[in-house]
Design brief:
Elements: E1 2-8, H1 14-28, E2 35-41, H2 53-61, H3 77-80, E3 83-86, H4 89-98, E4 107-109, H5 128-150
Parallel strand pairs: 1-2, 1-3, 3-4
Helix pairs in contact: 1-2, 1-5
The structure holds 4-nitrophenyl phosphate (4NP).
Length: about 160
């Protein structure tokens, strides 16, 4: 079982989108039993909130349903998850600051399989930002699932 946590700032726009896409693609590829997916935010201000309506609309347009309520990243997450995937450089900075050294290898850019870079914060922009997020995250999730299927995700640091 590979446990994957997607992380953005608020856990209402980008990380729930990735969460929904990853679950959907895992199911489509017959990998559901091998992947567990969740999402969280580095900040707590939207705790308990459903995903942003623009994220829900984007997912729905692609036939993806997601039930989730926003939560903040916890200390326990760093032990529980095999991959903690930050959406942008700021999320990754916050995650790395909190992550115990022995677990540093689990914190990675969400877009790593497609060459890295940021999933831009779409919150204050127009709906097209969510479409860009969707395309980037779909490609990245396919790449993560390729690695999970190949059993090549967990690379602990060289001692
Ligand atoms: P997310 O987007 O990090 O992708 O969930 C944001 C959601 C809320 C805020 C910023 C970004 N906010 O400032 O409240």
């Amino acid at each position: 079982m590979t446990r994957v946590l997607f992380v953005c700032l608020g856990n209402i726009c980008r990380s729930p989108m990735a969460h929904g896409i990853m679950g959907h693609l895992a199911e489509r590829r017959g990998l559901s039993a091998r992947v567990e997916v969740d999402s969280a935010g580095t900040a707590a201000n939207h705790t308990g909130a459903p995903p942003d309506p623009r994220t829900v609309a984007t997912l729905t347009r692609h036939g993806i349903a997601l039930v989730h309520r926003a939560r903040q990243v916890t200390d326990e997450d760093f032990d529980t998850f095999d991959l903690i995937l930050g959406m942008d450089a700021s999320n990754l900075r916050d995650l790395r600051r909190r992550c115990p050294a022995a677990r540093a290898h689990v914190v990675r850019p969400a877009l790593e399989p497609v060459g890295g870079g940021d999933v831009a914060d779409p919150y204050y922009g127009g709906p097209q930002g969510f479409d860009v997020n969707y395309d980037q995250l779909s490609a990245a999730c396919e790449g993560w699932l390729d690695r999970i299927a190949a059993g090549s995700v967990v690379r602990p640091p060289v001692e």
